[in-house]
Amino acid sequence: MLIRFAAAVLALASPALAQEELLPAPAPRTTHVELQTTMGTILIALETERAPITAGNFLRYVEEDRFDGAVFYRAMILDWEPQPNGLIQGGTQYDPDRILPPIAHEPTSVTGLAHVRGALSMARNEPGSATGDFSIMLQAQPAMDANPGNEDPQWHDGYAVFGRVVGGMDVIEAIHAAPRDPDKGEGWMKGEMLAQPVVIVDAVVVELPDQS
Q: Is the confidence at residue 63, as pLDDT, over 80?
């Protein structure tokens, strides 16, 4: 009798439980920023929940007007499909009047983010040296993700993704296609510098309408 009663209770409860299990998980919190450039506006969603250190650092640069007047200065072009491929890079270029102290590294193996098309990723030398320069991916670049099992230790930590472009990829592609100066740049970056850097006129936090 007790067994039949328990089974009946479970039968009544199971549809509700099943329905609850099917509910989607809430989306991670993001903060939106507009980069208003001389080639158009780029809308970014910063991953303030999944990459709080890195996204918080970028947000501080925005809120303190440290990106206003900074530039996109580099376009790395890759010749594999799909095209266009590579990345663009911009930011403070270690300007002492703009940069803040370096931040701790947040690898993609911890944040769960990845270098997908439109991803924003911090430029750095060694892990923990990132300040105010960043890259935006034209296509997925999985080789930039953290790979602790890689034979080469320099790829163990990868680069820190902290946001994604949600509007204005046409502007990213236009910056990427802009003329480059073959004589600018040093080392492996020579020839990747834009002949006329694209100015970030204003960087602002924006509130988007509720889509729910």
A: yes
Angle at the Cα of 136 from the Cα atoms of 131 and 141, rounded to 5 degrees: 110
Residue 117 gets which letter from DSSP? T
Q: Residue 115 region, left (φ>0) first, then alpha (ψ -120 to 50), else beta?
A: beta
- 145 within 8 A of 55, measured Cβ to Cβ: no
Q: Is the pLDDT of residue 208 over 90?
A: no
21 pLDDT exceeds 50?
yes
Q: What is the DSSP string of 28-94?
A: PP-EEEEEEETTEEEEEEE-TTTSHHHHHHHHHHHHTT-STT-EEEEEEE--SSSSS-EEEEEE-TT
pLDDT band at 210 (very low <50, low <70, confident <90, very high): low
Domains and CATH numbers, the chain: 30-206 (2.40.100.10)
Distance between CA 55 and CA 162 in Å, rounded? 5
Query: Do residues 164 and 50 lie in contact, with contact meaning Cβ atoms separated by under 8 Å?
Result: no
pLDDT tens-digit readout, 96-129: 999 999 999 999 999 999 999 999 999 999 999 9
Structure-token pair, residue 38: 């001389």
Residue 5: predicted pLDDT: 38
